[in-house]
Amino acid sequence: MAAYGALVSLSHILDQILLHPPPAYHFIFAREQIESLQIRVLSLLDFLENNYSRKLSSKEMEDLESRIADASYAAEDVIESNLRNQICAKSTEENLVSVDMEENREIHIMIQKFLSIEKDLVDNQSTRKASSSPVPLRIGKNTMVGFEDHLIQIMSMLTTDESDRRIIPIVGMGGIGKTNLATNAFNNPFIIEKFDIRAWFVVSQECTGKEILLGLLHQIINTANRNELEMNDDDELGEKLHKTLFGRKYFIVMDDMWDITAWEIVKRFLPDNNNGSRILVTTRLLNLAVDLGSCTPYELNLLDEAQSWDLLREKVFPEGRCPVELEEIGRNIAKKCRGLPLALVVIGGLLAKSKTEDWKYVEEDVTSAVNNEDDELCMKVISLSYSHLPIYLKPCFLYLAVFPHDFDIKMSRLVRLWVAEGFVRQCGPKSLEEIGEEYLKDLIDRNLILVSKIGISGEVKTCHIHDLLSDLCRREAQKDNFLVLSKLDNNKASLDMQRIRRLSINNCHWKDVTLTASIRSFLTFFSMNLSTYSARRSPLLRVLDVVDRYPKDEILQLINSRYVSCTGLISMSSSSILSRLWCLQTLVVGGELTLPSEIWQMPQLRHVQARRISLPDPPSRGEKSTLLENLQTLSIVKDFKCTKEVTKRIPNLKKLGIVCPTIGSYSLSNLGFFHKLESLSLALSGTLGRGNMVFPSSLKKLVLSKCKIPWEDMSIVGSLPNLEVLKLRSNAAVGQKWISNEGEFARLKYLLIHECELVIWESDNTHFPCLEQIHLRTVSLKEIPSDFAEILPLQVIDLYRCKNSLLESVKEVSEERENLGYDALQIRSSVFALLRISVQRGINLALGNGRSRDPYAVVRMSKQILKTRVVRKTVNPEWHDDLTVAVLDPSQPVSVCTTKTCSVRMRRWETQSLILDHLYKRLRCIQMPYQMVQ
């Protein structure tokens, strides 16, 4: 909902002015008016959170939402324009009296608007209840392609020998087939025979306990006088239901449950007859499914490509096979449905009544075809998930529309953008990022966001959104000018450009569109000429997220910016006017970043990242400075001087990256004073040891490079109580032998050793009790400790450019695990085989213009390039050279060329074992014209 997001954003601005003004500037404003406006905003926020009906009952309510958004945007513009003018002018109070008076009048008008809106919102709040469907579904035979295994599992859970009453939740995103699965189980002849009583009730979010009780009784009791039942209260209805079910074996389906409150009232009237009664609940909400207890939630996942094609084919050709000429395009259409059964069924119905030549048009835009078919049935089903969202999650969900289809979204980036946009409301002692991560988890549990990648500790690293949900976001986001996408046609865009707040360019179709004064957020996802999109045209820009270079002078004009990310290779030199960006939270630069001393006067900073950062010393005592209490990310800092004063100035730092030439002169031993630091990356030219380094005990992730820690001193790392990820790169540790100690690395889950000296590793299973993954790359280690077979959590050992003996020892450890009854290891060896190629001679090699007769042969496989010796002054050279390449992927071709003359390409060879020490291929370079390789 755009209105709620606009209110929260405005509340953040007012809070910042009242409670956290920038120390470098003295703002002139009428405090009592700002406080009055904040009271009105908070009042509306609380009202919307506690009383807002998720089902809009009237056009008047929609108009009120639009008024709230417009009033909030207007208030933001007035306040931030005034603050920007004050900062730019560096004016005195006397010089701004007339401006201040004008702003007072405008804010007074805003207050009156909010008072009027508040009154109308209360008056127009609807108490209408959503309708429910207590009538059991009568559905014919359902196609269950891809669901056979699921149906078997559900049937087994319904008919298991356990006699206690059990609640079985089925959970999954809208349209994934929960109701379809439940219906097939409900109507199964074996189930009909197994249970004495069956009942089906469709639950809506606004359903009361009484409505559920009535719905169940109407199905179970054949009463002619239903009005008589409706005269009873909850307890009387519950007693009737209890008496009816008592002693009988019953099966009840509660379909599409959104809220647990009414269920808590009803479940006490469902007796446990100790006879195998079952209650099946379908829901989109994982948290609700968990709260139901009794049984672990049964989660439905999206179909794979093969299952998707099977379902689509059966819908289009129920009695015959798909014509060969349509199979490829049909598979492409099925793939674009992204495994959602409802989308496949809807598109199948469309294709079944379409001409063959129309299939290609459907393939070009499957999502639109799905949404427009059957009176937008699919979109209506999907949109229920949005309609039932808590109001504080709606702007966060709508914001996903800024990302292109099939885009993997980095979790940290998404949360930072939510915070910068002002969607996350402060609550208690938690940081805004922690609250934002809870929002994200809630959306994942509601099956609105899909997880792409999970970190070693179970945290979400990247996520994405289904295409249909993405289209839903875009459709809703365009209301109230919450967001405009480059996908829109230019005519529609030009009408909205003077009012839109956010512009996202997903493709290159908008080359002629310029930014306007109303735009607060500008995001691009591809390289483009940004000269048209000058920030000077959008002086109140809040979010700038581009993948190209952006002029430094333009960035420094963004006085009200909160989030600036320019991942193109730009550099920003020291400039005192950077502190003018008084509410800057996130700064990400693809090049080098030299920060001015005024950086210590920017308390709103939360995340600063660049390829290299030059950080000045904090001001000495007596000079104007402040604590950067919000700063959580600082990476990568060149020549970081970790004095005690620095650790005091940034006490809440969570992620730090450092590059230093030495240790002592930079006081890195003070790193231990960062008591909240969770991730540290340290690269230096020196030797770390017990005497010159203390790491903070809060560390969860540690990346070391060139630190030359003697293996015998590895206890300074192993003693860290919370460490879960350790990466040792490029001589981070030195020495031939590592003997790990008991009690160390107690929580370590992920270990990487890359290009470090290590030949012998002695350890037992008690030293790494939680280890899950080991990655060994370019090391001389002979074998892995045999006791690692007994580390129960161990799952993966990944090898790259390692000795054959190490691979053999890993196999032995895996076999021993199987003998102990544990799961076998996933062994990943980058070297599939060693291919030895004997290059003998070339015959009548063609010469290019100006080329000498000094040929040599080149063997290429992927990125590996090997050359023979040069034979001078001949076109019939004889090399007799043996060249060995590491086969990383057996599907990759091998090419043998003479200088730039392509001669032979091999795509297949037979392998009898994993490592091929002696595989000879005699290749004779064939005569062919010289071709220049571009």
Task: Walk me through this protein's architecture.
A 16-stranded parallel β-sheet has the order 9-10-11-12-13-14-15-16-17-18-19-21-24-26-27-28. It has a five-stranded parallel β-sheet with strand order 2-3-4-1-5, sandwiched between helices. By secondary structure, the chain is α/β, with parallel strands linked by helices. The chain is globular. Helices cover 33% and strands 19% of the residues.
Mean of pLDDT: 80
- Please give the count of helices: 27
What is the general shape?
globular
Rounded to the nearest angstrom, the radius of gyration is: 33 Å
Largest sheet: 16 strands, parallel
Helix content: 25-40%
Query: What percentage of amino acids are in beta strands?
Result: 15-25%
Which descriptors would you attach to this protein?
about 950 residues; alpha/beta; 16-stranded parallel β-sheet; 35 strands; about 35% helix; disordered C terminus
List the helices and strands and how they pair.
Blueprint: H1 2-19, H2 31-51, H3 59-89, H4 97-124, H5 148-159, E1 166-171, H6 178-186, H7 189-194, E2 197-202, H8 209-220, H9 226-230, H10 234-245, E3 250-257, H11 261-266, E4 278-283, H12 286-291, E5 298-299, H13 305-316, H14 324-336, H15 341-352, H16 359-364, H17 366-372, H18 377-387, H19 394-398, E6 409-410, H20 411-421, H21 432-445, E7 450-454, E8 460-464, H22 467-477, E9 484-485, H23 490-496, E10 502-505, E11 521-524, E12 543-546, H24 552-555, E13 563-566, E14 586-594, E15 607-614, E16 633-638, H25 644-649, E17 655-660, E18 679-684, E19 701-705, E20 709-710, H26 715-718, E21 725-729, E22 733-734, E23 737-739, E24 750-754, E25 760-762, E26 773-777, E27 796-800, H27 804-819, E28 826-829, E29 833-842, E30 857-861, E31 864-867, E32 878-887, E33 894-898, E34 901-906, E35 920-925
Parallel strand pairs: 1-4, 1-5, 2-3, 3-4, 9-10, 10-11, 11-12, 12-13, 13-14, 14-15, 15-16, 16-17, 17-18, 18-19, 19-21, 20-22, 21-24, 23-25, 24-26, 26-27, 27-28, 29-35
Antiparallel strand pairs: 6-8, 7-8, 29-32, 30-31, 30-33, 33-34
